[in-house]
Amino acid sequence: MYGYNGKLLRINLREKTVKTEDLDLEKAKKYIGGRGLGTKILMEEVDPKVDPLSPENKLIFMTGPLTGTPTPTGGRYMAITKSPLTGTVACSNSGGHWGAELKYAGYDGIVFEEKADSPVYISIENDTVEVKDASELWGKTVSETTEALLEKSPEKSKVLTIGPAGEKLSKIAAIMNDKDRAAGRSGVGAVMGSKNLKAIVVRGTNKVNVYDSDKLKAVFSDSLKKIKENGVTGEGLPTYGTAVLVNIINENGVLPTNNFQKAQFDKADDISGETLAEKYLVKREACHRCPIGCGRYCKVDDIEGGGPEYETLWAFGSDCGVSDLKSVIKANYWCNELGLDTISAGATIAAAMELYEKGYVKDDELDGLSLEFGNGEAVVEWTKKMGRREGFGDKLAEGSYRLAEMYGVPELSMSVKKQELPAYDPRGIQGHGLQYATSNRGGCHVRGYMISPEILGEPEKLDRFSLEGKTEWAKTFQDITASIDSLGLCLFTSFALGAEDYGELYNAVCGTDYTGETILEAGERIWNLERIFNLRAGIDPKEDKLPKRLLKDPIPEGPSKGWTHKLDELLPKYYEARGWDKNGIPTEERLEKLGIDDEGLAEPACE
Amino acid sequence: MKIEVRLFATLRKGRGKKVYIEEDEGLTPKDIIDQLKIDEKDVSILLVNGRDGKLDTVLKDGDIVSLFPPVGGG
Fold it and tell me: Which of A31, A83, A164, A196 has the fewest Cβ atoms nearer than 10 Å?
């Protein structure tokens, strides 16, 4: 067995039983692992129409075949389930060290079924897997839980946990690991909370076998060289982290400000990566086997911890009109402690601020706390209230779409499929906007990071306003990303590596015979599988859309002034490029070509 | 004419955040980079007034030139 351990844990939380199952290797290699294999298992075992927070939904943790192997960034895991935020398939991906540790314990993944009748945590030490009482951990923050579990676990154990937000079923709750790494998006933390599952602590001492270690050494050093020599992965990310994007996105006039009412923030430099490095950065942090080390660790007043990332600086910064970097760092800290997705949390406060500005939310709901754009201290307090569902924070915990819907104006939620959009205004980045509209987990930038060619010029610079060729670019980016995620590698490697490189790493570790072309094809297979899950869940293809503001209201000022998003022109071409019919349904021909026609998937039900 | 040059990330070292350059007609971003002693290969992204610029774009009075080294993220 190479790369894969060939073993899955299946834990029934109601019965408190633990089983070890053999992994179907043929299936694993077809869907690679992680995101692909996890989605395949979810499809087979869960009715896509299931209530995401019911015991019938399952929560799957899956590593990739390269997780825990000597490959650059080979340390990631994914949480796959049906999302309570979007109703689509959810797959949230995280780095840190927990994923590799699970692999060293001898497992490729864990499938959680049912719901425990009282809070539990799972303790894994190689072959010893136990379901333990977590009543004393319930209510504790992420760092408190992590420290409490590390104290009673073998040395070098790694902890994954939810915070109070997940316990209280916030639809934007994250799953946290290693204290400050997050499987952040789509409310996966709420699914974990709904199962009364507080944490998983794991310690493993096995090695993952490699098929051809000589070949891997050569492929590894080749890919490492590319990563080191690439300007982004070799210098940009290590020096400034993702935070460096604040200024560049702002200079292009696509930094969403005040809930996407504007696209340029006059105080962007105050919340930029440069200012962060100058004032608050303590050290860099790297995930498992990562030669890039983009993680930041910051200290402000009495608070210190991992982050903030670019997305967080934007969400709590310009999107809330906040230029006070100290407050942004504190809001990030509380998201990590309470277990909230920083993108959705910040963007939900931004939406609430616009609801207040326009008179929908009134002072009598707010217990005297300001909800005005620009108030950094209030943003920190709202974050805490959201994580604990206190006062108006109870409404915030539902995410921006449901919040705005409560006031009859869902269009003020800047979301796709009810998931908050990230930190790039698509009106000035046309390919990226297409990607937002078609992402299988709703508003998301890492399902196909078109910022890379449209803004950063990697692998080549595209005109960000042009529609030419953007459908094919978006499709290719989406497909390769699905494969990178599934392999267990970090998406950031793709600034330096291409499909062939991933194929070679995979082959050296697992003895497979993937090529660049088949890596892309596997990604396309995974993409279609996710699409079919969503169709069967009842997600109408008409939901492949953007908020009305981004389609109708031109950007009011700055370098992207006058632009709206041209989704109507791009979407039909995108469906065509995907080999789907004009309604956005995968055709039998395409599914057959991808080899997923024989699995009862050819006729996706969509009512 | 007067050009505002905005510098970011590592390009700020020893140069500051913002530089104003006053010149006669015909100035290009290439001239600016040379004046500021920036190695051309260290400029990964070049914007003129927030739009993609070229090294040989002839600048006008009041133009804003933004220069970035290779940066990325997500």
Answer: A196
Q: Is A199 helix (H, G, I), strand (E, B) or coil?
A: strand
| pLDDT of A220 strictly over 70 | yes
Q: Which two tokens stand for residue A61?
A: 């943790």
Return the bridge partners of A177, or none: A160, A181
CB contact under 8 A, B71 and A232: yes
User: What is the spatial distance between Cα A330 and Cα A333, in angstroms, rounded to a whole number?
Assistant: 5
DSSP state of A174: P
A448-475 per-position pLDDT tens digit = 999 999 999 999 999 999 999 999 999 9
Tokens read off for B59: 């600048």
Query: To the nearest whole angstrom, how far is the Cα of B49 from the nearest Cα of chain A?
Result: 6
Q: Which of A601, A571, A596, A567 minimizes the C-alpha distance to A583?
A: A571
A538 touches chain B (CB under 8 A): no
Q: What ipTM did this prediction achieve?
A: 0.97
Nearest CA in chain A to B43: A231
pLDDT tens profile A141-200: 999 999 999 999 999 999 999 999 999 999 999 999 999 999 999 999 999 999 999 999
Mean pLDDT of A336-363: 98
Give the chain A residue nearest B11 (alpha carbons): A274
Q: Contact, A494 vs A481, CB < 8 A?
A: yes
Selected residues 460-499 of chain A with any CB under 8 Å from a CB in chain B = 461, 463-464, 491-492, 495
- Give chain A positions within 8 Å (CB) of B73: 236-237, 241-245, 294, 309-310, 492
Helices within A390-545 (DSSP H only): 393-396, 400-406, 430-438, 451, 470-487, 499-510, 516-536
Tell me the C-alpha to C-alpha distance, in Å, between residue A420 and each of A86, A290, A350, A417, A544: 10, 29, 11, 8, 14
Helix (H) or strand (E) holding A297: strand A295-300
Closest CA to A343 of A410, A236, A419, A398: A419
A109 contacts A122 by C-beta, under 8 angstroms: no
Asked if B72 and A237 come within 8 Å (Cβ–Cβ), the reply is yes
Cα–Cα distance for residue pair A369/A392, rounded to 1 Å:
10
The helix (run of H) or strand (run of E) holding residue A59 is: strand A59-63
Min Cα distance A600 → chain B (Å) is: 36
Contact A191, A60 (CB under 8 A): no
Tens of pLDDT, residue by residue over A41-65, are 999 999 999 999 999 999 999 999 9
Ordered alpha helix ranges (H), A320-420 = 325-338, 342-357, 376-388, 393-396, 400-406
pLDDT per position as a tens digit, A463-520: 999 999 999 999 999 999 999 999 999 999 999 999 999 999 999 999 999 999 999 9
Flag if A242 and B73 touch (Cβ within 8 Å): yes
Identify the structural domains of chain B with CATH numbers, from first to last.
2-68 (3.10.20.30)
B51-52 and A120-125 strand pairing: unpaired
What domains are defined for chain A?
7-203 (3.60.9.10), 257-408 (1.10.569.10), 426-593 (1.10.599.10)
The overall longest dimension of chain B from CA atoms, in Å, is: 40
| Structure-token match 């190479």, residue found | A2
Q: Do A559 and B10 touch (CB under 8 A)?
A: no
